[in-house]
Every structure is written in structure tokens, then in C-alpha cells.
Specification:
This protein is mainly beta. It is 13% helix and 48% strand.
């Protein structure tokens, strides 16, 4: 009888371990370039994105190129993202998580798009986010030249 209780206890313990080990984990996927997308990507999909580094030259803002370019004229990174509303979502928050070469999170910047009567969000609608990381922002300035790559976090919901 004692062996039965031990056996039942072990089965319950193993079931709990298996169930709890997968609970609370964020869903993740990789974009073709290896960028990680975390969260509700089944509700709002990233179709494409680009990173453009801008700088100053002779008092003018110029495009320095694609990607994170570090030089003495770089002053901001513009992340342009095209997304698709897959699940009739009423609002989407998109965060860009910026990392250094050691994969240390440096900062997170984001934006939210919310359905309104004047600007509804429809199923399969394509919309755009523009996230700007500027070295003029004193809160993040010290990390600007350390940025190596980014990941995205999506939070999407149907309720308001």
C-alpha cells in the first residue's frame, strides 16, 4: 500500500513539473534575419522592418545607412515597422528592445496603436510603427553607441 502512495505521489509530482515548466513562458519566433519577436505575434504580425541610422553633415540630417552605425555624426536610429492586424485586434503595443554585443538589454522604446471611432483597426489591415532612438535623449544617451541589435515585443488585445 505504501508503494502505491509513493507511485501516485511521483506521478502527480511529475505532472506538476511538466505542467509548470511550460507555464508563463512567452511565445517567441524568429524573423528571417534572426531577430526575435516575443509576445502576441499571432494577433499582430511583423511583415518587415528596417533600421536606418541618421546623422548630421553640414547642419543637415542625412541618412548614414541601414543598420546600427556608430560614428561621430550618428544621432538617431529610426526603426520602421510594417505590421498586419491578424486577429481584429483593437490595440497593439510594439516595443523595440535594444541590446549590445553581449546580448545585454540596454533600453526599451515603443509605441501603441489603438482603435478609435475615427481610426478603426480592421482584420488583415496593415499599419506602421516608427520608433526612434535618439542620442539626444539623456535617459538612453550613454548606451547609444553600444547598440548592436534589437528584438521586438508585441502586446495585442481585442478588448478596450
Amino acid at each position: 500500500m505504501k508503494k502505491q502512495y509513493i507511485g501516485i505521489g511521483m506521478v502527480i509530482f511529475l505532472l506538476l513539473v511538466v505542467c509548470l515548466s511550460g507555464c508563463g513562458e512567452e511565445k517567441t519566433m524568429l524573423l528571417p534575419d534572426g531577430t526575435k519577436v516575443i509576445g502576441d505575434f499571432q494577433k499582430a504580425e511583423i511583415l518587415n522592418y528596417s533600421v536606418v541610422t541618421e546623422g548630421y553633415k553640414d547642419g543637415e540630417i542625412i541618412n548614414l545607412g541601414y543598420g546600427f552605425i556608430h560614428n561621430n555624426t550618428s544621432f538617431r536610429y529610426k526603426i520602421n515597422i510594417a505590421m498586419k492586424n491578424i486577429d481584429s485586434t483593437n490595440y497593439v503595443t510594439l516595443e523595440a528592445l535594444f541590446y549590445d554585443t553581449d546580448n545585454t538589454l540596454l533600453c526599451t522604446l515603443g509605441d501603441t496603436l489603438e482603435r478609435t471611432d475615427e481610426a478603426p483597426l480592421y482584420k488583415n489591415q496593415i499599419f506602421h510603427f516608427n520608433i526612434i532612438y535618439s542620442n539626444n535623449d539623456s535617459k538612453y544617451k550613454e548606451f547609444f553607441s553600444d547598440v548592436d541589435h534589437l528584438n521586438f515585443y508585441i502586446y495585442a488585445d481585442r478588448s478596450l
